[in-house]
Amino acid sequence: MRAIRGNEISMIFQEPMSALNPLLTIGQQISEIIENHEMISSKEGMIRATELLNKTGVDDPSRRANSYPHQLSGGQRQRALIAMAIACRPKLLIADEPTTALDVTIRQQILSMLFELQEAEGMSVLLITHDLPLVERFAQKVGVMRNGRMIELGEKEKVFSNPKHEYTKKLLDSRPKPLNAKYKKRDVLIEARNFSCTYKLPVGFFSSRNYSAVSHENFVVYKGETLGVVGESGSGKTSLGLAILGLFSGVFKGSIKFDGLNLTDMSPQILRRTRRRFQMVFQDPFSSLSPRMTVAEILEEGLIHHFPQFISEERKKICEDIMDEVGLDINSMNRYPHEFSGGQRQRIAIARAAILEPDLIVLDEPTSALDVSVQAQVLKLLINLQKTRGLTYVFISHDLAVIRAISHRVLVMKSGKILEFGTTSHVLTQPRNEYTYRLMDAALVQTPPLTSD
Questions:
Q1: Once rounded to an integer, what is the mean pLDDT over residues 410-427?
Q2: CA quadruple 139, 76, 249, 343: dihedral, nearest 10
Q3: Contact present, 167 and 144 (Cβ < 8 Å)
Q4: Residue 310, helix vs strand vs coil
Q5: What is the pLDDT of residue 390?
Q6: CATH code of 98's domain
Q7: Contact at 8 Å (CB) between 410 and 396?
Q8: Would you give the DSSP letter of residue 67?
Q9: For residues 351 and 325, is the Cβ–Cβ distance under 8 A?
Q10: 46-55, 97-106, 118-127, 147-156 — which is least confidently predicted?
Q11: Do 78 and 213 share a domain, yes or no?
């Protein structure tokens, strides 16, 4: 098997940080594979490793070959993993969710590079993914699996245009669709004026420099709407969400008013009492839910703090009601987070936020780790909760297809600046900025011509 593994058949894993050895440099890890299959010296192996990093688009390959995995960005690590996989020119490359953890523009670059290598090297690629638009753009043949069985297999055009199996039809129907709702301007809930978020980045052992996450921006959020905030990793969108909630850990300047109340002037005591009215749902529910608490305890925690007048029986009834509302079995309340699937854990996180009857929920990439069918279910749940409870959402994502499916208005960010801001239908049909256009293309959203001012 050793002669075949890595030589004839190679594999790219979903999480490069888990697949790469943290104790060896990137060059050493690539060289090790070549040395195991070809009778060459370590010096020759390092030269080949540098050439492979250059071929896979890693900037400054000579320096990166001597870097450790933690010193590379997510996109660079994935490129390094691809360099390792193609080091011995395999005939078959298995790519298991190779871009799941990457933002849309990096994903586009990685996949384009991967399939250019496929053409140049003449190898076959087995792409394993839950991302249907990605399959539609890059695959020639498609196999659909369910419960360990291949239920449909055929040419891509036939499978996508005329699926035979009900499960395939369900998957295709789960793709995000544009939000079918007319936008109505309502009362202002959030008003941000000339606000900036800055934090210090360490430089060496004894010095640091200021990094501007958000720079002198203005925007409003209306009651009952969903404002989509979109941008690449590092664009400042999460910092914007944290600033709205008063959770930004760096230096904040400017003003943010919440329903007329100036959050920046509030004392910690008043802010703590007001915090029930704005909640957050994080990207990874497994990290944000305590593994030592049952679901009932997780849901009750906020009620005990913000509604001390409720007795135990009342809290239990409220928890049961919210569990039912988010589509979870009330008999599972005494289970722990690890006993639920990813989609169910995200429903628990949404229930924890909604149970306090907030006016605003900030959702930071809440569907990025979910497959397409579960993603559609979570988006439908959020839309239903908004209708029944009158919630306002700030929905942060790098995926414009998801933003289009849930947002009334959209705000496009890059390097701490707001580049575009308007109704979703207007921004995504008449983009005025090249960056917005590139995001749409990378997200595999239909890209109309750029509109000049």
A1: 91
A2: 30
A3: yes
A4: coil
A5: 93
A6: 3.40.50.300
A7: no
A8: S
A9: yes
A10: 97-106
A11: no
Taking phi first (over 0 means left), then psi (-120 to 50 degrees means alpha), and beta for anything else, what does residue 14 get?
alpha
Of 93, 113, 129, the residue that ends a domain is 129
Band the pLDDT of 333: cuts 50, 70, 90.
Answer: very high
Give dist(CA 324, CA 341) in Å, integer.
17
Distance between CA atoms of residues 55 and 121, nearest Å:
12
At residue 443, φ and ψ (nearest 5 deg) are -85, 5
Q: Which domain holds residue 332?
A: 188-442
> Which DSSP state fits 265?
G
Structure tokens at 32: 């090790």
CA–CA separation, 17 and 24 (whole Å) = 12
The residue to which tokens 């800055």 are assigned: 198
DSSP-assigned letter for residue 308:
T
Q: Are residues 197 and 106 in the same domain?
A: no
Quote the number of domains for the chain. 2
pTM for the structure as a whole: 0.77
379 within a domain of the structure (yes/no) = yes
Place of tokens 């239909």: 446
The residue to which tokens 């529910």 are assigned:
285
Can you say whether residue 59 is alpha, beta or left, with left for phi > 0 and alpha for psi between -120 and 50 degrees?
A: beta
Q: Mean pLDDT lowest for which of 16-30, 315-329, 348-362?
A: 16-30
Q: Is 233 inside a domain boundary? A: yes
Domain end: 114, 129, 144, which one?
129
Contact of 183 with 236, CB cutoff 8 Å:
no
**Amino acid in the structure at residue 128:** I
Distance CA 297, CA 280 (A): 18
Same domain, 359 and 280: yes
Mean pLDDT, range 325-337, rounded to an integer = 94
Per DSSP, the residues of 236-265 read SHHHHHHHHTT---SEEEEEEEETTEEGGG
Residue type, 324: D
Q: What tokens does 391 get? A: 């919630």
The percentage of the chain sitting over the pLDDT mark of 90, rounded to a whole number, equals: 45
Residue type at 232 in one-letter notation? E
3-state secondary structure of 14: coil
Answer yes or no: do 206 and 343 share one domain: yes
**Within this chain, do residues 122 and 195 fall inside the same structural domain, yes or no?**
no
Residue 406: predicted pLDDT: 93
